[in-house]
Fold each of these.
Amino acid sequence: MRLSTLLPIALAAGPAVVSAAGNFGFALGVKNGDGTCKSQKDFEDDFDVLKAHTHTVRTYSASDCNNVEAIVPAARAKNFKVVLGIWPDVETSFKADTEALKKAVPGNEDVIAAITVGSETLYRGNFTGEELLGKINQVKNMFPKVKVGTADSWNKYDDGTADPLIVGGVDYFLVNAFAFWQGQEVNNASATLFDDMTRAMNHIQKIAGPRAKDIYIATGETGWPSDGGSNYGAAIAGTENAKTFHDKGVCAMLAWGVDVFFFEAFDEPWKPDSIGDNGESATEKHWGMYTVDRKPKYKVQC
Ligand SMILES: *[C@@H]1O[C@H](CO)[C@@H](O)[C@H](O)[C@H]1NC(C)=O
Ligand SMILES: *[C@@H]1O[C@H](CO)[C@@H](O)[C@H](O)[C@H]1NC(C)=O
């Protein structure tokens, strides 16, 4: 379906969104190409490139590379805001991340857009909704001045797994939606992104009822691998396709008024291959809008 035909349908049937254009942001890795940890200077160099698009990035596990100690001062120096993360799946990482945040957050609330507790924990089946709500509430008590929420796959919002969070008062939801991992051709990928987001937002807003207007919902991760990436079903990696997905899908989502975090800013060649749902080995090294040495792969145009 062409996006121009999809958009009015999505608007007519879809969830309420604010009318202003959405804000763009990036998922940002915390390691250099060789796998070493980024320093404050490395993050500042990242920000000098990314500021052409945005002043917002998100990271995942605060204690990974002890990134909060480097990224928070870098963000302050370069006028960026960061969404920081906690990996709650196991007790050791939950503790390490909350300890790292206790050192980094107080006094820096103005550069911290939010804290996400978990990334696709419901999707992986690590927690029930109630269990994740318990973790989020623990973190809310630690950082009362910061927005605290979670990031999960669109279908876990759509199918009710996240309902206990919505009912339980969580008001910050990042929705991950990868038409690529749904095996969609790039020509249908924008329609799939809209379908995923519409379903997740509709469900959250329905369950939230009158509280819906106080709930922040954004696309937490979406993107497309460039040349060198693995294919997945009908989804073909390639630089042209990555640009097409950005310019058609991501731009339309922003125009609709939804904030989008693009996965991801820079290639991560240190990443090990992973086995996809189809049992095939897939590389996640080539999802950057930029190469690992911060060169643009394509010219984005909204
Ligand atoms: C939870 O996730 C971690 C990976 O983050 C995994 O190692 C662990 O086995 C998972 N636990 C359960 C109970 O699913
Ligand atoms: C295109 O995307 C829509 C929305 O996700 C989906 O319903 C439809 O089946 C897709 N078409 C094809 C040919 O896969």
Amino acid sequence: MSIAQNLLKIKSSLPENVTLVAVSKTKPIPDLMEAYDAGQRIFGENKIQEMAEKWEAMPKDIEWHMIGHVQTNKVKFMAPFVSLIHGVDSLKLLEEINKQAQKNNRIIDCLLQIHIAEEETKFGLDEDELNEILTSSTFQEMKNIRIVGLMGMATFTNNQEQIRKEFTHLKTIFDKLRNGGSGRDALQCVSTKCVSTLSMGMSGDYQLAIECESTMVRIGSRIFGGR
Ligand SMILES: *Cc1c(COP(=O)(O)O)cnc(C)c1O
């Protein structure tokens, strides 16, 4: 099947409230344009340099999502245009995003990444670290970032029950953040709308993620083929 066919098939299978991020990392611009021409407007990349090059070359109605681990010293290269940064996992990084957003006269939307997998290697915060960030005065003084939700990656395994457990764990933390607790207060939410995004699910596990109430799936190889 073609990229356009893959895309449309996945799109038609998603519930209405689930947003599809087409993960186009490593793929050439013509491949992205095929998805664009089929109607896709949200693309996910994991390298800032590559994302910036694609942003420059492609139509300007695309929303670019940074889904990879972000190095502080590279934030400035995406601050003018990035729509959502998924993998934020430290106060230091938030400070830099806030600073660069301010320079560009923008408010940048971010997701905080929670560590839910068994693997040690995957980035992310635990629940205590999350609350520590949200209740810190440094965070509360930042005016140019908006935390719109959480992101997580499950363990790379065939064990469906384990993946389900990890996604459910993330959903629980997400609900706590939306519905109360110190974190919610710190976000100065006037409604649950401001914390609305739960980014979980990739090519191999997005159906399970949706069962666990994901609102945003990041799908690469099922659209563009293997990398
Ligand atoms: C690469 C990547 C994806 C997409 O992976 P696929 O298995 O190709 O769908 C999703 N999320 C993150 C964080 C990634 O790095």
Amino acid sequence: MHPITKAIRLQTPRTHQMEHSTPLFLTSSFCFEDAEDMRAAFADEKEANIYSRFINPNITEFTDKMAALEGTEAAYAMASGMSAISSVFLALLKQGDHLLSCNAIFGSTHTVINKYLPKYGIEHDYFEADKPETWEASIRPNTKMIFVETPTNPGLDILDLEMLGMLAKKHNLLFVVDNCFATPIAQQPVQYGADIIIHSGTKWLDGQGRVLAGVVAGKKSIINDIYLFCRSMGPSLSPFNAWILSKSLETLDVRMERHSNNALFLAEKLEHHPKLNWLKYPFLPSHPQYDIAKKQMKNGGGILCFELSGGLEAGRQFLDNLKMLSLTANLGDTRSIASHPASTTHAKLSEQDRLAVNITPGLIRISVGLEHRDDILADILQALEN
Ligand SMILES: *Cc1c(COP(=O)(O)O)cnc(C)c1O
């Protein structure tokens, strides 16, 4: 079956009730036939549900679909995107190891790398997203992992996955991609040699701003190491959230098609607006890494960003003028969302660190929803004009 069909048809085995839609397994533990059955399950001699901190049928259904969509052998899910990211770091890196990360990454990922990994003796360096000629020179003898997002949040830089995959292979590094912005519909990093693909399920995978979740996908052996770490450390995903997400994946492909069509429409309409210094969208020919985006992505995704010529005050004014678009911290929703990173998500970074990742004072990020595209455009235009 095609992965899109698997995202709809992979299903927990039907119970004797003959239900069509998967039931919610809201149970903390599972029963055994007898003492021998229980012993074998605990000894990992048979695959069995034991306890929902480890695994639960709703989680397995969701992760089976994610592995199918990402084209990997296995996947595991946790309580949030950040628990997925921190579990990857802590399960696979140890004292003395060096993590090489792109500088343009999600704000909380920065905090984990800068503030917490050093406590465990894990070193790091950042390379610049738009200077690929410097990447290889940043690799050290003790570098174990390379971590990137593409497109990056919120600057929408595109990193060349093929080049990164070759570097990782040459230097024997674990290649980790946060694929949250693209989704597996637009981009499958495993095709370029990624060892671990991470998602915040909170964003496009849910797509309706209801639940938090994180996913890791990759080879069985690596995912098993992360699973064993999580089953003891405990960042478990709620079966209810997994049930929601498994249903959401049935519509991921059609939703992403509309999100990206709406985003491209807005990008083309707004690109030359006089109040904007620039507008960035991966599938606009004016995007600095347009050729790479076209090579590795099937669509440009649902996010666009632009810079208001009026700077910080114009950014705040723009948000105040919006009538329909939501002002909220999330992205990847049916409802269009506007955010102003300099005063919110990235306010903890210094001005200099913000500028290093192209977060200028007037930068606005739009997560394009599923409303009629004319309504989204009209709201943005009136907010710009006023
Ligand atoms: C939101 C986000 C995360 C963190 O996910 P949570 O589910 O909020 O913990 C990580 N990476 C990217 C790119 C994100 O947008």
